[in-house]
Amino acid sequence: MLIYPAIFTKENDGYFVRFPDLEGCLTEGDSMKNAIHMAEEALGGYLASLYERNLIIPEPSEIATIKVDSENECVVIIYSNVDKYFSKTKAVKKTLSIPAWLNELADSQHLNFSAILQEALRQHLDL
Fold it and tell me: How far is Cα 120 from Cα 123, in angstroms, rounded to an integer?
């Protein structure tokens, strides 16, 4: 799950959304709820595209540093699970070794090794 601030601008027929840290990442919605949903989609697709093209993924700005230009604007934090936007979703098999006692303990609790490894890698990579 990645988190970025977005600036929402109230317009006559809805909201225009832009991400100050992500040049060209724009969207809109006809209501605040719809605009948030569209922002989550735009963020996920944009970040996945950067990753797949081996481009640098910018760090998100601190919300306190973002200035709005008018009363019609507000800053909203947008969360997006980028996994569903990757075209490189083919699973790969990895062989690894762990201590036998740890394997037995994890097996006794019916843990999903693949899911735990994926979660740990995402945390380690700040994804």
Answer: 5
Q: What is the pLDDT of residues 56-74, one digit of tens each?
A: 989 999 999 999 989 999 9
Q: Which residue type does 63 have?
A: I
- Set out the domains of the chain in order of their start, with CATH numbers: 2-85 (3.30.160.250), 91-127 (no CATH)
Encoding tokens for residue 64? 């306190």
Sheet holding 73-80, edge to edge: 26-29, 14-18, 2-11, 73-80
* Interatomic CA distance for residues 51 and 48, integer angstroms: 5
C-alpha–C-alpha distance, residues 5 and 18, integer Å: 9
Token pair listed for 59: 């760090």
pLDDT digits (tens, 9 = 90+) for 28-53: 999 999 999 999 999 998 998 888 88
CA 32/CA 26 separation, integer angstroms: 15
Distance (Å) of CA 114 to CA 67, 118, 125: 42, 6, 16
